[in-house]
Design a protein that fits this description.
disordered N terminus, alpha+beta, 357 residues, eight-stranded mixed β-sheet
Length: 357
């Protein structure tokens, strides 16, 4: 009954949800095992071969629709020519492997792997149930979602025969944008709307300590063993672009939105911070600093907060959170996929739920 009432409240406030965004999808997606014990150049060969035409279409669209300047293309080609010196292992070899498997020029694969650090718009929500369990909602929005929808698959990363983590993966990418590590933490990344995108590429060239965002997050998903360790790494590592890291743990109050610029931590926003005495049961982050108002032409925050409050903490669960991720404009014409996840539950037992929009 509580579930039914909360749904009525959401529909009463917001009316019919965006018809392009429903809470159940008929779009099928593939799953692949990525074996971290294999040579790096071979790890992504299966999905790369299966999606090679779609990857090529995405690269062409990026060049045309983003109107990338010639001087930036030259920078990308330089990175490709010096990939072993600029990109750390295993990412250099994995990208070379994708180029080999698809027949796509190495510079174009490099561009595809840098593109998220350049432009994307997303929504992330961390919520705590009355039981103390943390659940995490994530919408990935992009300028041309019709391409990325055709490239989305579930990747299960294994080491020594054991599942390390699960991700919503984009074919052609080796980094992680959305991840689930059972009994440890969940993760998503949002672009922080700061400055001209080409500066990010220049930063990567000038400062060899800086890494593409999705490379940093991949290493965190592979190696961090706790929510606290993940928060610490993502708060301190040099990056090539500003962003928001959103994490959920397995214990009560383990939820955080980390606001970053390229070289330092700007802010950590937590569930129920000890110092404030304020009880917050959810955090909602789009692409703008949470202490500032969002721009009127892109206010996904206010409808999302209203929907969360309408649902209320007693009724929040993976199903009702997916409904919040479905309302307009939290879900919109640019939304590629939605994920609802909880590190307290194994990915195959409902801990990682993906809908391609």
């Amino acid at each position: 009954m509580k579930f039914f009432i909360s749904n009525l409240i959401i529909f009463a406030i917001f009316g019919i949800v965006n018809l392009k965004c429903v809470d159940k999808s008929t779009i099928q997606f593939k799953s692949y095992k990525i074996n971290l014990d294999e040579p790096a150049i071979q790890r992504f060969s299966a999905p790369s071969a299966d999606f090679k035409n779609e990857i090529a279409s995405l690269v062409d669209a990026q060049k045309k629709l983003l109107k990338i300047p010639d001087q930036v293309i030259s920078l990308v080609e330089f990175i490709a020519s010096e990939i072993d010196n600029i990109f750390p292992f295993p990412f250099n070899d994995e990208i070379k492997g994708i180029s080999k498997s698809t027949g796509i020029k190495l510079g174009d694969v490099v561009l595809a792997n840098l593109i998220y650090d350049i432009t994307a718009f997303c929504t992330g929500i961390i919520a705590q149930q009355t039981t103390g369990q943390i659940i995490h909602g994530r919408n990935l929005d992009y300028n041309f979602p019709e391409y990325l929808k055709n490239l989305t698959y579930v990747a299960e990363y294994y080491r020594n025969g054991t599942l390390v983590f699960t991700s919503a993966q984009i074919a052609g990418f080796v980094g992680i944008l959305t991840g689930h590590k059972y009994s440890k933490f969940t993760f998503s990344i949002n672009e922080r709307d700061q400055g001209d995108w080409w500066i990010n590429l220049l930063f990567a060239i000038i400062d060899r300590k800086a890494s593409p965002l999705s490379f940093v997050t991949r290493k965190v998903m592979e190696n961090a063993t706790s929510f606290e360790e993940a928060v610490d790494i993502l708060s301190t590592h040099d990056l090539i672009a500003p962003c928001y890291f959103i994490l959920g743990g397995v214990h009560p109050d383990e939820g955080a939105v980390i606001t970053r610029n390229q070289y330092k931590l700007v802010d950590i926003w937590k569930l129920n911070p000890d110092t404030s005495g304020i009880g917050r049961w959810f955090l909602l982050e789009t692409n703008y600093d949470h202490w500032l108002p969002p721009p009127p032409n892109d206010d996904r925050r206010t409808p999302g907060i209203k929907a969360m409050n309408a649902t209320n903490q007693e009724n929040i669960n993976t199903n009702t959170l997916m409904k919040v991720m479905t309302i307009d404009p939290v879900c919109n014409k640019d939304t590629v996929y939605s994920v609802v996840m909880s590190a307290a539950v194994e990915s195959k037992q409902g801990g990682f739920q993906l809908i391609i929009r």
